[in-house]
Write a structure and sequence with these properties.
By secondary structure, the chain is mainly alpha-helical. The protein has one domain. The chain contains 5 helices and 2 strands, in the order βααααβα. The radius of gyration is 17 Å and the shape is elongated. It starts with a strand and ends with a helix.
Amino acid sequence: MISVQPFSYAPSEHEAEKASNSYLMSLIAVIAGLPLPIINLIATLIFYIGNRKGTYFVRWHCTQALLSQFSMLFMNSAAFWWTVSILFRNESVSNLYISYIFTVLLFNLTEFIGTIYTAIQSRKGIHVEWFFYGRLTHFICKPS
């Protein structure tokens, strides 16, 4: 899922800190806006916009963090609204609901652990690429 790849240059201390902060922003947003899945995406998007003209290392990691939050938004939103419909309507908890919630929790836990690992490694100046998101980030984010 996660691989350490060589980067085109050695990032400075300032760049490594900003890249690490792009991942930490999503973790802080999870704590602040836990019931609403859109909060994570908005916080990461604001950090991305603030750093979109930064160095390539910072832009690359801000983009990867944003892409991961964007994909998690869909899964978490479906789980959130399905739970709301069960709580406030006459719907019952089905096996399909339980399996979906279990899957969403598993994906969120995996993304949470991966985000912490990537934040630590990028703070050290080590370039970490996530499966799928890394390739997509290379496609979107080009060196200037």
